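Reviewers of the previous submission asked for a worked example of the structure-prediction workflow described in the proposal, so we include one complete record here. The input consisted solely of the amino acid sequence. No template or homolog information was supplied to the procedure at any stage.
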Amino acid sequence: MDFLIVVDMQNDFIDGALGTPEALAIVPKVAEKIKGFGGKVIFTRDTHGEDYLDTQEGRLLPVRHCIKGTDGWQIRAELEALGAEDVIDKPAFGSPELAMQLKNYDETVEHIGSVTLVGLCTDICVISNAMLIKAFMPEVPVRVNPKLCAGVTPETHEAALATMRMCQIDLIEG
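From that input alone, the workflow returned the following C-alpha cells.
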C-alpha cells in the first residue's frame, strides 16, 4: 500500500495570513494528485490555540495562523472535498502521531510500499514530516514531489529540497 500525505494545505498557508503566490499555484496540481492517487491519503492540519503568540513558535513567528476553528485553519475546500483516510491535527511542524500511525500500519496491517508528501511549507512542515517518517521507517521509500510543494520563499523551498535529497528522501515528479 502506498500513502500520500497532504501537508497543511490550509487557507492560512495558501492565501491567508502566511499565504504565497507559489502556495496558491499548487492547489490545482495537488487536487489532481489526490484524484489520481491509488493508495491511502492522509491530510495534516497545522493547529494552534488562542494562546499561539505565547508559545515558542508564536514568539519566533509572531503571525497568528491556523487557529483551531477559524477559516484559516480549514483545509482548502476543494482538496478536503476529495476526501482522505484521516486528518491529523498537529501542534508542531512535524507530527510524531503521523509517523507512528504509518509505522503501526506497516507493522500490523500491510507493508507500506512508499510514502509521498506534497503540500506546505516545503522548508518547515514538509521537511519535518518527511524526516520523521524516514526516522520511524528507514526502509520505506519516502518521497517528495517538489512541484506539488511550496516553501516560505522559492529559495528556502530549494534549500529544503537539497537537504531532503541528502537525507535519502527521493524527489519525484508525477
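The first helix runs from residue 11 to 14. We consider this example representative of the routine output the project will generate in years two and three.
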